[in-house]
Amino acid sequence: MKHYKLFINNKWVSASTGETFATYCPANGQMLATFEKGGVDDADKACLAARASFENGSWSDMENNERAKIILKAADIIERRWDEFCEAEALDVGKPISEVTSADMPFSIFALRYFANLAREIKGELIHIPEEPYFHDYLVYEPYGVVGILSPYNYPLHLLTRSLAPALAAGNTVVCKASSLTPLTTAMLGEVILEAGFPPGVVNIVSGPGSTVGEAIASHKEVDIVALTGSEGIGRRLLELSARSEVIKKNILELGGKGPVIVEPDCNWKPTVEKIAEGLLSNSGQVCCAQTRLLLHESIYDKFLEDLVVEVEKWQPGDILDPKTKLGAVINKEQLDKFDHTIKDAVVSGAKVLCGGERFTGGYADKGAFYKPTILTNVDTSMKCFHEEIFGPVLVVLKYSTLDEAIKLANDSKYGLGAGIFTENYRTINYASRKLKGGTIFVNTPNMARMNAPFGGNKNSGLGREYGLVGLHEYLRTKNTFWNMAFGYPEEQGQIYY
After folding, report:
1. CA–CA gap between residue 224 and residue 144 (Å, rounded)
2. For the domain 259-443, what is the CATH code?
3. Which of 32, 215, 395, 440 has its CA 20 to 30 A from that of 418?
4. Domain range 3-255+461-481, its CATH number among 3.20.20.80, 3.30.450.20, 3.40.718.10, 3.40.605.10
5. What's the pLDDT tens digit per position in 397-426?
6. pLDDT tens-digit profile of 128-173?
7. Among 288, 385, 466, 474, the one annotated catalytic
């Protein structure tokens, strides 16, 4: 079994705490690897290493094309180790290998390639001031400095690289901390960084608890940006730490969601049923933008639910390394117990369990934290299950009469990450996409993302955007320069032009 140390300044070092921890597969309980358990002193060393690396210019002053070559080499190394990374990610998260090979790994590799090439296009702007022709005014886009990246357990490598790639492409240096539940592929990334030839201190990886290591990174005076994908509660905590820090930080936060999806009577029936199930059950519902609030028109309510129950019951647990397995485990039994309690609380409040509502038992399911796809009906907007993110395979269903009523229900949330609609009417699509309050509107598709399209939330779903040119510029500081070209030569002020 492999043991991973902390990766600081291109060296593998022991944690100052002298402690270690292990990671286990949620699907079968297998111990996967052991890790040094970092502490506040280790976070400090990593942040100082990142700052020193940024200030010496080995990365920040490197020509964009040269930076791109190194990032592209990192992508090539991961692709070369495809099978190793895919299996590690599947086991660490407890998700089907088919999801890892179709989503996690392709997105992780493409993030590095996309932003490496986009870095070549970083360029400034000239601002024309016709009334003062002797003034030269121009914008440049520069790296901020040190970026702290705190990544979650549901897509460990993918949601790390979507922040890491633009941060590096922009010329920043980075300190990474993965969830202690799924640190494996992030630790493996240190090996990739060494082989690809990144200068020392550009990428640092510290494993350990969020309450110590994560908070130490987020509040460190040398950190300029904190990028988090996580819960609303942790996002609020980071904003508090930033406000108290010696230097206020920029926060890029992709937080929770409670994704609504409207199904109109004219939907393309069978594909819609299938995609509603997919939008709920991908990664066992552990997706921030999962479609977990289903709003059904009253004319199709009963028949649609009848067909949906049949569809979701096709999702069965199995060996996660078998490409045919569709449903993986949730991250651990504690999380399973948490949303199981939420379901039981909803039933006490009047909700009805149409299907699921309990753990899978028997056979392979006995080895891990598997929960049956659950549909709750008879739900109203006063219930906790309607408003709170459950982060599991749980769907709440409400009935509506008019499209405006459905949109009002959809927008009745403190979150605003994603929202969806299934319909064949183009006018309905146009109207709903304008009225729905989500960072991304999914039309006739479950939740999805594309590297060249910005993604992020409104309201309590976060701040800032990842992906695309917008995502790159989140990691670039704008600097404006005014240059009086005739300074000291007033007689020439009317003669100097550019």
Report:
1. 6
2. 3.40.309.10
3. 215
4. 3.40.605.10
5. 999 999 999 999 999 999 999 999 999 999
6. 888 877 888 999 999 999 999 999 999 999 999 999 999 999 999 9
7. 288
Choice among 215, 254, 311, 466 that is catalytic: 254
Q: Can you give 202-243 as a three-state secondary structure string? A: CEEECCCCHHHHHHHHHHCCCCCEEEEECCHHHHHHHHHHHH
Helix (H) or strand (E) holding 483: strand 476-484
3-state secondary structure (DSSP) of residue 306: helix
Q: Give residue for tokens 């989140």.
A: 474
What average pLDDT score do residues 221-241 get?
A: 97
Domain locations in the chain as residue ranges: 3-255+461-481, 259-443
Continuous segment of H or E residues that includes residue 141: strand 135-143
Number of neighbouring beta carbons within 10 Å of residue 383: 18
What is the rounded distance in angstroms from the CA atom of residue 424 to the CA atom of residue 62?
51
Instruction: Clarify whether 288 is annotated catalytic.
Output: yes
- Axis-axis angle for helices 184-196, 64-80 (nearest 10): 130
